[in-house]
Each structure stands twice: as structure tokens, then as C-alpha cells.
Design a protein that fits this description.
The protein is mainly α and 208 residues long. It has seven helices and six strands; from the N terminus they run ββαββαααββααα. The mean pLDDT is 84.
């Protein structure tokens, strides 16, 4: 079911301002999410369709054939999730598909990219796939000793983006429910974020 689309061939690293070569689950999911957002806001469903025959499209698709790009993105991400669950358990996705030259093992599953894939699955309507990622996040990525989300599975390292992406993806109430946090617990969690990552009032770009 996933023979036609192989992920976006390139992505842009906004922090390093460089082009990244190769398929990436986060950038591909983000692109799909933007298409769904545009569709929801405008009602324009034609925008998701493209004509096959581009240089990054496999040659066995008929040139000029209209392809539902959102569905292709969904199928591709679903296939990565199935492969990741088969090899590693739980529902988190590897950022780069196994077999690609830049693949890094043994797990290489990160919190931030999976927040984006979760949001895409939710928007697409696959609740089961989305909740499988949440289960992985809760069981594999929550560092109970530090009270923070791990940046990468199997490593006690943390990042600001891993925290903020998931707060945005789940919303505060759902975030608290997933990690069994009371309102007071959540306030303490935010204080840990400020302390751990050096967040100050001056560091908020929209503080005014």
C-alpha cells in the first residue's frame, strides 16, 4: 500500500539553515498537516491532489495521474509506524526509515518528530495510530526521575522542544491526563522547564 510515495526527498533545517537530504517522518508529516489545515480553513480539497510524473515520483505511476498526496503521506507514515512497532514495540516512529543510508540505530525515535506525526494522524482521523504514539510517549519517553520528556528513546537527555511540542500537540488538559499530573504538578513541570532550559521572561519573543 506504500509502494508509491517515499517521503519528501528534502527538508530545511531552520536552526542550521541548511538543506537536509533524504526522507524524514517529521518534515513529511508537517507538510501533510499544513495541507490538511489549508483544506480545513478554505474547503479546497483539490489542493491535495498533484499530477504524478515529478522527478521524485516512482516511474510506475502513470504520468499525469492525479494522486492524493495527503493519503500517500498517511500511508507512508503508517508503514513506518508498523515497521517501528514490529522491531521496537510501542507506536513511536523512527525519524528516518530503516534502510535509508542516514538511518541510525538501534532505535532513533525522538519525542519532537513524533509530536508532529501524532498531530497529523489526529487531523487525518486515525485515532488508533495517534494514540499508539501517545502510549509510546508515556511508557518510553517520560523520565519520572527528572519529571521531563526524554528527547530520544533510551537516553536520559532532554530538550525544550520535546516538552513544548507535546504540550501544543496534546493541549494542556490532555497532557496532564496522559502523565497523571494535577494542576499543581503541571505548574511545577513548567518551573522545571524554565530552570532546566534557562527560560526567562526576556527569552519569550512575544512577551510584550
Amino acid at each position: 500500500e506504500n509502494a508509491n510515495f517515499r517521503g519528501l526527498p528534502k527538508a530545511f533545517d531552520a536552526f542550521k539553515e541548511i538543506i537536509l537530504e533524504g526522507p524524514d517522518s517529521a518534515s513529511t508529516a508537517q507538510f501533510g498537516l499544513e495541507l490538511l489545515f489549508y483544506e480545513a480553513q478554505t474547503g479546497d480539497k483539490e489542493f491535495r491532489y498533484i499530477n504524478a510524473g515529478r522527478k521524485w515520483w516512482p516511474p510506475w505511476r502513470m504520468r499525469g495521474e492525479k494522486v492524493d498526496l495527503v493519503k500517500e503521506i498517511y500511508n507512508w507514515l503508517s508503514a513506518i509506524q508498523k515497521e517501528s512497532r514490529k522491531r521496537l514495540g510501542e507506536g513511536g516512529l523512527q525519524q528516518i526509515p530503516q534502510g535509508y543510508k542516514e538511518f541510525k540505530g538501534p532505535s532513533w525515535r525522538h519525542a519532537e518528530p513524533n509530536a508532529i506525526v501524532y498531530a497529523f494522524f489526529e487531523a487525518y482521523g486515525d485515532k488508533e495510530a495517534a494514540e499508539a504514539i501517545v502510549g509510546w510517549l508515556k511508557n518510553r519517553m517520560w523520565d519520572s526521575k527528572q519529571g521531563l520528556i526524554r528527547a530520544e528513546e533510551g537516553k536520559d537527555i532532554h530538550s525544550l522542544d520535546a516538552q513544548t511540542r507535546w504540550i501544543l500537540a496534546l493541549g494542556i488538559e490532555r497532557f496532564m491526563k496522559v502523565f497523571s499530573l494535577t494542576p499543581e504538578d503541571f505548574k511545577e513541570y513548567l518551573k522545571r522547564i524554565e530552570k532546566e532550559f534557562g527560560i526567562t521572561e526576556e527569552s519569550y519573543p512575544l512577551r510584550n
